[in-house]
């Protein structure tokens, strides 16, 4: 009997397994438990059903679906004994999710993970330019989605430059193709001459990228649309330096790729609507703008004209105002000097009247007489009179001589004591 | 009291001020007749000077307008 070394024995066992299966890859379905990643590179878990259990090994980079404990999966691979630990395991090439429940569960797990990483943050979403010119379109050339998208675009707007990055939009190879297309579009710089309309690719960093990156496909089954829930696709869209517009399937379908996009279109047609404005709306808006500018300008001109008018009329009006003021002041002075002179005249009349009343001649006219003695002195008392004395009487119009016959009723002068 | 010569290039604002002062003098009922007559004469001089000054300004405004129309 030949005695074998341990490694030789395991090599024989592995050889028997290989030969027996003839290189055929078997698919084994079961539920995951004990899922773990070693050194960030090697994924191991137990795949089990009610009666049995087998260890599964797969390099992390080959694992394209999100899995966790309890998930039902189909593992495609070959059985072998791992020499270092003598452990029998299923070496997987690829793992698929089994059953719709598992899809949904896995999808929810991936959404949660990416959400925590901030891939769906509303704050980091960029607006699309209102009038994009250069579009990178990631879609299938044969799809109805592509036709719809182009048709609606042309109905609404014109003059767009659209570069189609043709990709598969379903199946195993689709995610990688889509990722490659997104990366390729991001590496292209367009330098555009507006006169000739020609494009020249450039490696310069200050060159312009596409204005918008559009990823779209039409409706399909959940499995078909899973391409757009693929972590690689979602990350590529999130990482795009070109603003992204993603519309997958129908309105009710919401894929992670759409959630990671800057703008989500619910369908390919909706993508076209969100990408460009309707030229009729823009024409209407332009007409409104022109009208509003014209009206604002007219108002400015009117205001200016009004200022000019004032400038022209103000000096003449000021002069007219001064002239009126002068007339008023002069009329006032004239009135005042009249009144002032009248006061003088009034005073004169009063003084004259007073003097007139004091004039003795005026008294004589009323019948009074002045009595004067022989020396011409006026006599104002009987004491200075004696009987037989000669006196003169002065009247208003002349003089008469008289002799005193009685003084105080007596013919003889009483003797002075 | 300013002389007659002052009225040739009379300052409009000062002219009006002087007229107002004369008006107030009469209002006070002053009794100096000679002074009153002199003030009245002065008022008439200022009024004529102001009229001339304003008429000249009016013509100047018309002239300037014509130049720029």
Keyphrases for this structure?
heterodimer; A: 417 residues; alpha/beta; OB fold (Dihydrolipoamide Acetyltransferase, E2P); Rossmann fold; five-stranded mixed beta barrel; five-stranded parallel sheet; 10 helices; 23% strand; B: 69 residues; mainly alpha; 75% helix; 0% strand
Topology:
The complex is a heterodimer of chains A (417) and B (69).
Chain A: H1 6-21, E1 26-38, E2 42-48, E3 53-59, E4 72-82, E5 87-97, H2 100-117, E6 134-139, H3 144-156, E7 161-166, H4 174-187, E8 189-192, E9 199-202, E10 212-217, H5 222-225, H6 231-239, E11 244-248, H7 256-260, E12 263-264, H8 268-275, H9 279-358, H10 360-365, E13 370-372, E14 390-394, E15 399-403
Parallel strand pairs in A: 3-5, 6-7, 6-10, 10-11, 11-12
Antiparallel strand pairs in A: 1-2, 1-4, 2-3, 4-5, 8-9, 13-14, 14-15
Chain B: H1 12-27, H2 33-68
Helix content of chain A: 40-55%
CATH class label of the domain at 109-119 and 132-276 in chain A: Alpha Beta
* Uncertain residue ranges of chain A: 192-206
What is the CATH architecture term of the domain at 109-119 and 132-276 in chain A? 3-Layer(aba) Sandwich
N-to-C CA distance of chain B: 44 Å
How helical, in percent, are the residues of chain B? over 70%
Radius of gyration of chain A: 65 Å
**SS-based class of chain B:** mainly alpha
Short summary of the structure?
With 417 residues, chain A is an alpha/beta fold. Chain A has helices at 6-21, 100-117, 144-156, 174-187, 222-225, 231-239, 256-260, 268-275, 279-358, 360-365; strands spanning 26-38, 42-48, 53-59, 72-82, 87-97, 134-139, 161-166, 189-192, 199-202, 212-217, 244-248, 263-264, 370-372, 390-394, 399-403.
